[in-house]
Amino acid sequence: MKMKIIFLLIFFLLIGQALALSTTNLRAYYKFDETSGTTIDDAHSTFDGTLTGGAVNETGILGKALKLGVGASDHVRLANWRPDKNFSINFWIKNNGDAGNRIWNEFDHQSTSGGWIVDGGDASGYGRFGQYQNGSFTYLADVNASQVWYLNNAWHMITVTYSATTRTIYFDGAYSTSGAISTIVSYVSTDTFNIGAFCTNGASCGQSFKGWIDESSLWNKVLSQSEITELYNSGTPLAYPFTPADECSRTLNTDWVVTSALDCNSKTINLGTGKLILSTGARLRLFDANLTCNRFDINASGSQLHLGSGSWIKTG
Given strand 276-278, what is the order of strands in its sheet? Predict the structure, then answer.
């Protein structure tokens, strides 16, 4: 029995490491939880932005959000990123009913080549992921009529990915559309990286996104469908550092019943005389974490317990 348990824990360790949403290749994460000032903080690194116009301290999908479109040129200026391929942007928006607005972009509209843009779309409101080359855009449009980004004044998660061959759009965690890339994106020395408006020659900015933006991340890789599903988290964002810590705080001497997928990383959890119980289909991942409990039950159909490096479970 002891050997069987050890084998199962090693098996779960390998699976857990493969499935964990890692911050590897995460370039920046913006919570937009500022309550004052013009600095937009990068919660992951030092890729902070500077806000012009707009309004902080707005109600977000989680915590606070940034409102843009208060003025025609509202935007956040970021340092140049200039990824040439294998990048992703994941973000939550709530639009106020205005199409054709600029959400993310890195290019110079005055130049004849170089850069990309994510905007609220055409007159019908279909969101678009465009590449700017030779003085014009080639757009990949999210033409699914049920996925009009701006009509219902509700929060939605948008994900765009860019590889050496393909541009892809995901809406609320689900694949929507993709298109082939004929030429890898390039940049010019005068381009700027902005949230909420595009700027000509780094100075004159306009066509501001009109709405709210929250919980946004930049990645130096192409996010997979499983990673995007985890970020969407059934409509409640899996926010940086991607651990729902509130679910990992437990009451001493009380059973812990896990009913869904849950990550508890770098935690010390003491249930005392309480039991750990994994319901049907539940999954608990512990990485660099310690759990003390009376006993644990993972016999339910489809339940999984993943133990990562530095983790242990003490029973009895």
Answer: 256-258, 276-278, 296-297
10 Å Cβ neighbour count for 145? 9
In order of 9, 166, 257, 286, the CA distances from 13 in angstroms are 6, 33, 21, 9
Residue 259: which of 236, 238, 279 has the closest Cα? 279
- For 61, the domain range is 24-235
CB 141 within 8 A of CB 117: no
Q: What is residue 4's DSSP assignment?
A: H
Among 304, 264, 297, smallest CA distance to 281 is for 304
Structure tokens at 270: 């003491």
The reported pTM is 0.73
* CA of residue 27 relative to chain centroid, distance: 11
Return d(Cα 189, Cα 303) in angstroms, integer.
Answer: 53
pLDDT in tens, 269-294: 888 888 898 888 788 888 888 888 88
7 SS3 class: helix
- State how far the alpha carbon of 115 is from the alpha carbons of 103, 105, 112, 182, in Å: 14, 8, 10, 14
Report CA-CA distances (Å) from 305 to 122, 231, 258, 295, 310.
Answer: 46, 20, 10, 13, 15
Domain C-terminal end among 235, 263, 283: 235
Q: What secondary structure letter does DSSP report for 275?
A: -
Query: Do 199 and 100 have their domain in common?
Result: yes
Q: Report the candidate in 214, 211, 216 with the shortest Cα–Cα distance to residue 197.
A: 211
pLDDT of amino acid 280: 83
Looking up residue 155, the CATH number of its domain turns out to be 2.60.120.200
Identity of the amino acid at 118: V
| Residue 83 to residue 220: CA distance in whole angstroms | 7
